[in-house]
Structures are given as C-alpha cells and as structure tokens.
Design brief:
Elements lengths: L1 E4 L12 E3 L2 H8 L5 E3 L2 H32 L3 E6 L6 E6 L1 H10 L15 E3 L1 E10 L2 E11 L5
Parallel strand pairs: 4-8
Antiparallel strand pairs: 1-2, 1-3, 5-6, 7-8
Length: about 150
C-alpha cells in the first residue's frame, strides 16, 4: 500500500515522502490517525503543489535540531543519588531525571528523545544518546555520584 506521509515518522520517513507499508498498518493506524493519505493521483498533485512549503518546514525543523545538537554537544550532567557500599543506587536515574537536569540548564528536551535503554542503577559515567531530530542524535554524559559523599 502506497501512502504519502503528512508528518515525519521516525521508522518510515519525513513529511511528504511516498512510502510503501503493509495494508494493515496503513489502514488501521496511519490513515485513521491522519498521519498519511493514500498516494492516488489527486493527492500526488496536491503534494507537488505543496512541496516547497513542506521542504521549508523540514529545513526549519532540521535547523532547530542542529541547534539543539550543538547545545547538547559536550554536556556533562552530574546527578546525585544515594548508593550503597557496592556502588549500586537505592533508586535509579531515569529519562525524567535527565530531562529535569537538562531543564535546569535551560535546555528543553522531551523525555522520549532520550534514548536510555534501561535506567541507570550504578555510580559512574554513562554516555547517553539523545535524538534531536530525524536521523540526528547527539550523546551527552551523565555522571552519577553518591549523594552522601558530595555533602
């Protein structure tokens, strides 16, 4: 089934792309959610007329993503947590914790953009990828320290 994307979908493509998907995915998700339209001649003609507007919007989004990437490049966050003698945390550091710490540095990031496979449960440094735009990621360092040693 061929569809025209009305918005960027990370697993498929950018807005305005003509993609081929399985019929069930298109019929049951993309079309009802308004994320795509069928690639019939009428919609392809509309896409051709709106191509310049779409490309301008995509370029603007790319520039914003690159700006955010530059802000995040080289950032090292220090998060203090209580830990036991074996350097295991009593809790864990999650994407929400990282998001709050970035917000305190005036960097606005949605927690869904932080690609943390599983919560951090030990002391030390961890490199964490942050998805800042379509096919664009930047790594930040998170240093988890023992709260009792920092006081």
């Amino acid at each position: 089934m061929e569809l025209i994307l009305k918005e960027t979908i990370n697993t498929l493509g950018q807005e305005g792309d003509v993609v081929t998907v399985k019929p069930g995915y298109g019929r049951n998700y993309l079309l009802p959610q308004g994320k795509a339209v069928t690639a019939d001649p009428e919609n392809l003609a509309i896409l051709a007329r709106n191509r310049a507007t779409i490309e301008t919007r995509i370029e603007h989004q790319r520039q914003e993503a690159e700006l955010l990437s530059k802000k995040l490049a080289g950032v090292t966050l220090e998060i203090q947590q209580l830990a036991g003698e074996d350097e295991r945390l009593f809790g864990s550091v999650t994407t929400s914790d990282i998001c709050e710490k970035l917000a305190s540095l005036n960097i606005s990031v949605d927690k869904k953009m932080i690609l943390l496979a599983e919560p951090i449960k030990t002391l030390g440094e961890t490199s964490i990828p942050v998805k800042v735009g379509f096919n664009l990621t930047t790594n930040i360092m998170v240093r988890v320290t023992n709260r009792s040693s920092g006081e």
